[in-house]
Structures are given as C-alpha cells and as structure tokens.
Design brief:
The protein is α+β, with helices and mostly antiparallel strands and 241 residues long. It has one domain. Strands 1-3-4-2 form a 4-stranded mixed beta sheet, with helices on one face. Strand 3 and strand 4 form a beta hairpin. The protein is globular and about 45 Å long.
C-alpha cells in the first residue's frame, strides 16, 4: 500500500465555491466536434428503454423498472449546462434542441443522456437500498464533505457514459491535482478525475463496486492521493463476502 501522505486541510477553501458543487448531477457544457444533426427527442422517445438495456448488459448493472421523466429544456439558472438530473423528482433535463449553441448536436445529446442516466441509476440504487435520494447535500455541509461525494457522483456517471460509448480517457494518474482547489478552478477535472478515481474499482466489482463507492467516499487525506483511496477500497471489497 502507498504510504499515506500528510495532507493539508481543506478549510482554506472559501464557501463561495460550494455553490458549484450543488449542481451534483450536471453535465457541463464542454465544446465538442459537431458530428450529426437529428430530432433527438423523437430518437429518445423511441430508444430510451433500449439505451438503458444496453447499459445494463454492457456494465452488468440493474436499473429499476420505472423510467426517468425527460424534459427537453433546462431550468433558467442552469442554462449553461448540457444536462441535469434531479434526484428529488427523478427527472432528467436536457438542453433544448432550439438552442443556438453550435456544439449541442445529436452526438453530444447522446453522450449527455448516457451520463444523466448514470445519475438516475445511482439515485435509484440508493432508494432500492432504503437509503433515500443520492447524492444528498445539506446546506450546512462543509466543502471537504461535498467534494468527495461530487467526485464519486460525476466519476461513476462519466464511467457509465464512456464505457457505454466505448470511449477511453486521456486523463492519467499524474494529472490528479495536488491542490483540491483545482477541481473548482477547472470543473472538467471533476469528471475526468472522478472517472480516473472510480474506474479500477468498477472494472473489478461492477455494481457492487459502484454501491460501495457511493457510501464510502474519499477521506480528506485521500483527496490528495487517488491511489491511496483506490487501494483502500479494493482491499475492503476483497475482504467482503
């Protein structure tokens, strides 16, 4: 096991950045290459169940029988996002096809729904286990409590998205930020870093690994060393029957 490093406290991070994390199930608007156009609403109306079935088969996970409600517009305060999942209402919100954003196209919409379905899956898994909506953030939570949950949430959703689309990642362990503040300076790190954090565990343990990750997020010290967290979780899962 990697020798634990003494980690500085996260208390220096201002609570002003906490608001960013309360978009706990969002897909950021990241520029992409325009590949194709199409009526995504019509496509999704006809293919949502198939997409869920493919995720289950490819990732060996199990969705509930119910389907999420899909909205083809975002709340005004979240209009800069591509997608958003609300665990309170089990609803997915997608950017409107009427947007003039050139990088909102059929291909991007497909990636986004795969990601938001990942959030829906985790929320439903938590509810099936009798643990309520997931993730849950309290107004009085400190930053060091929110960030680990956020990394797991976005990491697992990104894993589901990329594995379903058979996409890899250019993010390497050495890209893990030395300062957790970087997760707020460069929000895309929440997705890239989160994916890198959870991938070895889900590769080994599938749905069991996802469930364990959800309720065993990194400690403050482990936020400074992803391998420290990965090794702990893999060791703990290996001991379980």
């Amino acid at each position: 096991m990697t020798k634990p490093r003494r980690s500085p406290t996260l208390k220096f991070l201002k609570r002003a950045v906490i608001g960013v994390l309360f978009y706990a199930t969002a897909t950021l608007a990241v520029p992409t290459v325009k590949k194709s156009e199409g009526d995504f609403k019509q496509y999704l109306d006809q293919n949502l169940e198939r997409l869920i079935r493919e995720q289950q088969e490819q990732l060996n996970i199990k969705y509930p029988h119910q389907l999420p409600k899909i909205h083809y517009s975002l709340p005004h305060e979240n209009s800069e996002l591509y997608g958003l999942y609300d665990p309170e209402t089990d609803e997915i919100f997608l950017k409107s096809e009427k947007t003039d954003q050139q990088d909102w196209n059929f291909s991007t919409a497909q990636d986004t729904i795969q990601h938001e379905l990942g959030h829906f899956y985790m929320d439903q898994l938590s509810e099936t286990l009798g643990r309520g909506n997931w993730p849950q953030y309290r107004e009085d939570m400190e930053l060091e409590e929110i960030l680990p949950i956020k990394l797991i949430s976005e990491g697992v959703a990104t894993y589901i998205e990329r594995k379903t689309d058979q996409e890899g990642s250019s993010f390497a362990d050495q890209n893990w930020p030395e300062d957790p503040l970087d997760f707020f300076v460069y929000p895309v790190l929440l997705y890239q870093g989160g994916f890198q954090l959870v991938s070895p565990i889900i590769d080994l343990y599938g749905q069991r690994g996802i469930q364990y990750l959800m309720f065993n997020p990194p400690s403050e010290e482990e936020l400074f060393d992803l391998s420290l967290y990965q090794e702990r979780i893999i060791e703990e899962l290996a001991k379980e029957p």
